[in-house]
Amino acid sequence: MKKSSSALQGKKVITGIYVFVLVYTVLQLVWWGVLLHQQSKEIAHYEQMELTHQMHQLSEPSQFMQEMQRLHHEERMRTLKYIGEGTIFLIIILAGASMVYRAVWKQMRLQQQQQNFMMAVTHELKSPIAIAKLNLETLRKHRLDEEKQRRLLDATIRETNRLDQLCNNILLASQFEHEKSQPFLEPLDFSQVLTQALNELRDRIHSHDIVADIEPGIGLEADKFMITLMLNNLVENAVKYAPKGTEIVVSLGLEQNDLLMRVCDQGEGIPQEEKGKIFMKFYRIGNENTRKSKGSGLGLYLTRKIVEQHGGTIAVNDNLPKGTCFEIRWQDYSPQTV
Amino acid sequence: MKEATKASILLVEDEENLQEALKLNLELEGYEVTAVDNGTSALKAVKNEYFDLIILDIMLPEMDGLAVCENIRIQNNEVPILFLSAKNSSADRVLGLKKGGDDYMTKPFNLEELLLRVEKLIVKTKRFRIKTAYPMCTASAII
What we know:
- The complex is a heterodimer.
- By secondary structure, chain A is of the alpha+beta class.
- Chain A folds into 3 domains: about 1-115; about 115-175, Helix Hairpins; about 185-330, Histidine kinase-like ATPase, C-terminal domain (Heat Shock Protein 90, 2-Layer Sandwich).
- Helix content of chain A is about 65%, strand content about 15%.
- In chain B, strands 2-1-3-4-5 form a 5-stranded parallel sheet, with helices on both faces.
- The chains are: A alpha+beta, B alpha/beta.
């Protein structure tokens, strides 16, 4: 809480300094313009006075008028020159200021996201290790009955799976970052892969009712590991945000010419303004110290990347009457043989 | 039998598996344990019940552990608080102690060390309370 308020304070200070420097520069420019204008007026005045003093030397009045017109023309040209230069300077200053502003904010947002990621990963890495260690120490220290032993061992296995999933996410995110990740595409029975992955998820997630509505025999050229990771991330995301005991429905089927996969939950839903941000790397809704759900902020980012690598698109919609639906669509899907 | 037998502990931990294993260990040591998984429930429990010790996580839903600790201290409640958190920098530890924590342990932790710290904190506080209530007696004689 304190960290987020001090970060906010820091942002305010930086914005204050930035606005001050910008306003000062623009005012300097305006002042420079005013001085030039005054100088130009003075030059014109002196030149006109000099011309009036020289009048007796001029043979004809028309020559005087010509000279006067020339002086007025020069004055106009000077005015145009400094107004033109000033406008260009102003445009350059404003464009530069806008670029600097955007770059600074981007940097600060990235810094904040990385800080959030470090906090989240600290929690996500240490908690399973702490649980596994405590469970093993408990088994070593006490002679427990079989039921308690089984519960502790099951919990330890669940936590090591959680660690495994987090490690996979971090490694894959790093590969995406360096554009090293190339999917190993092979013809898959997509329906079967999803069904198998859902069965494994059901084995380790007992808090929610995972319902499968998978149309059989749908083939897709895909990377099995990545597709499984994508499904795991979406289902685990739903588990984090939907109340215990509610249904999570995973469906796969054809809709006109498109192949459509959906993961729908009955959670609180995602606010409209957050929907565009949730697929960003490290992005997590809310304060890291007090958020209801735990995670690294990588799951949905990786999901989007995997979907894009497989030629699909992902969208997030409201589930009716309550919750969120993630929709993955492969447009103009042509049935593939497995 | 140890001095802290039947002492009551409030365990505030949102990781279900960790909460379950910690509760089991503390109960096997003879403590009475009330477990909650968020800051708001922790404050409610402290308001309604007496505890000899609170084991408090920092990253909690709704209200973080530091705010819970501050709230408890504002109410002049001097119950010993042991922070048990994954946050392990010295700045985090200092902040935890500054907010009113009596001890700070980081995850993953050693079970024996945790149980010893719990016991020491409870016994020390009990002795201090008795000494304050009966200044003429030796605390160990009463316990």
